Inverse folding.
């Protein structure tokens, strides 16, 4: 079992297989980065898999593939199949913007993928275009339908932003309830790559909007889930991810591997160590030493704060498209 320096069990690995993305979401990557990591600098699936095996052998039981847009990386299904074949009871999931899901859902499912989280910030064409800076809504909706049809477990991620898509919180909730798939509203996490003029909705505001139409009950936090779940009277459950809350980090069980082989202990901070050399050299002991070092130094808490006075110095300079969110 892997534990960090604060005694938290770490059994969840998120792997960002590429930084690249076909969207330019205003809260993540509003402009094309100055430069991408060159292809030859990326870890191959074979090298990533060497790390995956070590992580699984040490107790990791949940793996999420993310990005950038993970479905842009060629032959992703082969990587998924490698993980599935190594341990088929791993909770194997993917986070995607949905654009390529219609074409790939069946193949991903056949390769062993169990669940898929699809980002959907609006049900309106123009608003979707404003957020992702691309005309993508129809294709994303087809992707959601296809993922359900092929039998993947589907969840929706929505980042509500003031005066952009916050008027659609109820519509998105009802859209997801009708499809019987959970939605998680994610509080916008300030970072230095996002557009400067956006303001996210806080959990209280999201709940206030929902309470104009529905009664809900807060449920106890389950395991290490980053979301707090709420139940409507109909029984439908939705979640809110609140990284600005003190208890968000208390149950953190996550570590992140980037496409270039950096092992990152915390979404917020720049700290990271590379496993690239040790995996390439098949130096398992060396890779384990890096892993243990990273976990030992996993920060106790992020620095996102609700305190307006502290905010200026407390914006993460980690790119979400690099860590995978
Ligand atoms: N491209 C895929 C996608 O958009 O789902 C996967 C990568 S994306 C970085 C993973 C998740 O992070 C998405 O649900 C996205 O909405 C969320 N995200 C990105 N930037 C964010 C931010 N600044 N605050 C909150 N969530 C963010
Ligand atoms: Fe791309 Fe996902 Fe970032 Fe949007 S949130 S720019 S889809 S990586």
């Amino acid at each position: 079992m892997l534990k960090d320096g604060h005694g938290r069990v770490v059994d969840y690995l998120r792997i960002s297989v590429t930084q690249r993305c076909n969207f330019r979401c205003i809260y993540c990557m509003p402009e094309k980065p100055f430069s991408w990591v060159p292809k030859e600098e990326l870890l191959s699936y074979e090298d990533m898999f060497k790390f995956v095996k070590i992580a699984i052998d040490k107790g990791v039981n949940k793996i999420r593939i993310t990005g950038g847009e993970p479905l842009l990386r060629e032959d992703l299904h082969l990587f998924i199949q490698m993980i599935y074949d190594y341990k088929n009871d791993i909770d194997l999931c993917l986070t995607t913007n949905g654009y390529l899901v219609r074409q790939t859902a069946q193949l991903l499912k056949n390769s062993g993928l169990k669940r898929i989280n699809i980002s959907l910030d609006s049900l309106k064409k123009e608003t979707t275009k404003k957020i992702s800076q691309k005309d993508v809504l129809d294709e994303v909706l087809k992707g959601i339908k296809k993922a359900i049809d092929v039998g993947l477990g589907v969840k929706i991620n929505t980042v509500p932003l003031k005066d952009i898509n916050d008027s659609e919180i109820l519509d998105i909730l009802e859209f997801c309830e009708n499809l019987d798939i959970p939605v998680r509203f994610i509080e916008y996490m300030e970072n230095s790559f996002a557009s400067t003029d956006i303001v996210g909705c806080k959990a209280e505001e999201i709940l206030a909007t929902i309470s104009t139409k529905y009664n809900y009950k807060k449920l106890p936090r389950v395991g290490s889930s980053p979301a707090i779940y709420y139940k409507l009277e109909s029984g439908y459950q939705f979640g809110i991810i609140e990284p600005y809350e003190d208890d968000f980090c208390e149950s953190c069980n996550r570590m992140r591997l980037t496409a270039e082989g950096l092992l990152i202990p915390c979404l917020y901070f720049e700290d990271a160590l590379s496993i690239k050399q040790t995996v390439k050299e098949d130096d398992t002991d060396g890779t384990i030493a890096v892993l243990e070092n990273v976990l030992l130094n996993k920060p106790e808490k992020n620095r996102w704060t609700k305190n307006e006075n502290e905010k200026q110095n407390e914006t993460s300079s980690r790119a979400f498209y690099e860590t995978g969110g």
Summary: The chain has a mean pLDDT of 92. The pocket of iron/sulfur cluster (ligand 2) is lined by residues 21, 23-25, 28-29, 67-69, 97, 320-321 (CB under 6 Å).
